[in-house]
Amino acid sequence: xxxxxxxxxxxxxxLLFFAGLSCETDIFTSSTNLSDGRTLVSSDESFELGFFSSxxxxxxxxxxxxxxxIPIQTVVWVANRCDPINDTSGVLMINSTGNxxxxxxxxxxxxxxxxxxxxxxxxVQLLDSGNLVLxxxxxxxxxxxxxxxxxxxxxxxxxxxxxxxxxxTGLNRQLSAWKSPDDPCPGDLIYGVLPYNxxxxxxxxxxxxxxxxxxxxxxxxxxxxxLRPNPWFTVNLVxxxxxxxxxxxxxxxxxxxxxIVNQTTSRGERYLWNEYTRTWTVSNHxxxxxxxxxxxxxxxxxxxxxxxxxxxxxxDFKPKSQEESSVDWHQGCVRNKxxxxxxxxxxxxxxxxxxxxxxxxxxNKSMNLKECRAKCLENCSCMAxxxxxxxxxxxxxxxxxxxxxxxxxxxxxxxxxxxxxxxDSDHEETKGKTKMMAGLIIVAVILVVTGVFVITYYIRRSxxxxxGRENGCSDERQIEDMELPLFEVALISNATNNFSSNNKLGxxxxxxxxxxxxxxxxxxxxxxxxxSSGQGIVEFKNEVALIAKLQHRNLVKLLGCCIQxxxxxLIYEYMPNKSLDCFIFDRTRRNLLDWPKxxxxxxxxxxxxxxxxxxxxxxxIHRDLKVSNVLLDSEMNPKISDFGMARAFGGEQFEGxxxxxxxxxxxxxxxxxxxGKFSVKSDVFSFGILLLEIISGKKNKGFYHxxxxxxxxxxxWRLWKEGNASELIDSFxxxxxxxxxxxxxxxxxxxCVQQHPEDRPxxxxxxxxxxxxxxxxxxxxxxxxxxxxxxxxxxxxxxxxSSSTNELSHSVLEPR
Length: 816
Prior knowledge:
signal; eight-stranded mixed β-sheet; 45 strands; about 20% helix; five-stranded antiparallel β-sheet
């Protein structure tokens, strides 16, 4: 009898032992732990947390979460992705500070949750959603979330899991693919959300955009027809002042689905579990076809997968490079006829499109389509507009830059209204009347024209030469009044080898620039007004009027001009080292600019601006300060150039306002881009951007950092707050720089890019700061940190919405 009793006790102990190996509970506390061989199971037994081996190597152990009741082990989250434990000594526990830590016998701490909140009664729980949470569970009080695995995803997006940004903390939740099927360490394929005014989801390969979904349109992502309403799940994109994220919800609780990024296929893939076949099936994926690859057809080129070639210019556009258009479409397309904002432009309707890249866009959720059209027309930099929410036929989205990454999506694409010259536009409102009237008036017009043609011809011919001479003389008299030397066309033509392409230095909005040599051997730079330039005459006279009498060593010197017939040219001193951007953004030439040279250039630009703002006879605001408008002489002295956009103030006037906002996106101050208000503080903001670019060697426009905000301002601000500002420094100058001096320059740049003009220093103060002659105040959060956050005064309420619509004042962007 005693032997039977002992056997019974042994069996009970054995059962308890094996039960302990599979810890059938969803919670553990600081008094317990989870060792290798034991698991934590969610209450509905959907998910399991424990240790696993990946691939053929049983020695490499990872802590992860997988589906419990699916026979094919499918891991959805890994803690120690790049740091496996090489034995079975791994233990997950809560340490004395209330953090979740993964320990191994030989190495100590392998991974930790790193929560900054100290907990009184920390508890770990695996939820039915697959989310592992660490919380402070105090009796009689509500639980406090300390950390959750959903905030730090691996390669998998589960239902109710947010993909995107917490704008309050700067947390960016994004998926990163396993390096290989056997290695959970992150590869270079990343899927995340860009928190623009009109957010997009983007797949990156390294630092390059590889795929873009298109913005949310009230039903789905405009470039993802595969995600239209289905019986299994519903997708949503939430955008407010606190968060911007993509999420999906299950329509059927029994459905099992997940979204992953797959390094092997270079795709994002949606999987559904088929209970009948007991296998995973791919329900959709992206990129879906070759037309989904980002920017395949360049600006204003639409990719049509059924066409040959697949790249097609939009109606009333033509390939930018006729010679290369058959083999390389990355240069995109240009309009058949140039825009002329002042005499009136129109729009063409292009249907069935995936909407273009929203980096330089603006949205308003309350406008209708007619108001949206008017908003676009009143701004010369608006390139297109459309309805924001097609489900409710409401809202407005407009674009201020070239339209990139267009694709024909016939089944679910949207209508886009693209700006063209008035003569090419659809004229929808008047087209019907025009057709009816055309037949009635055409006969009368022909009769009248025929009757007066001969007389008119002779009269106009006799007066044409006289008028031409009078106009030419009028322009010349205006220039002579400025006491500026006039050059003959023949002289300039000979100096530039008849405007040879070999002498061409570049081209801007004004027209081409040529190098020339005068008979006395003096080298010059010739800006020749393009006859097709719609704004060239105004800018020409403006530049002559402003710069004719300006004399400063850090301003480019105007030697004279040429006005003869239709020819209008400005003659400048020649700068042998061209512009600053040719150095700091060029990987081979940037090492020629060590830190002392860069600091010399920074100080020279600052002194030039002080002269413009307060020391010249008029107070001049440049309005287009950027690295390409800073020229370098033979001794690398900086010279501010291109005054075509500048404005002059006299007397006590310190600021102005304009409806025609011109300049370069990425350098504009918030108050100028949004409201058209400009002052000397607008130039200070541009100087701050320029300063960051010189320090970092990176462009603000198009700047991207995987773990950062989406422009160089946000990146610099985050590094500054974390005490890591030195990480911003260009590696080419790290050895030659004085760290305290360059950190001071970063500090100054952040003061220059403050949100509000009154918080920015004057340029005279900046010069003193650069010389170390004045104390620096603590900077506030800069302007244009994000496209949406920077305009908070005009944003909508923070209530989450199923769209990306915040009411923001328009920012006018003019590419140069």
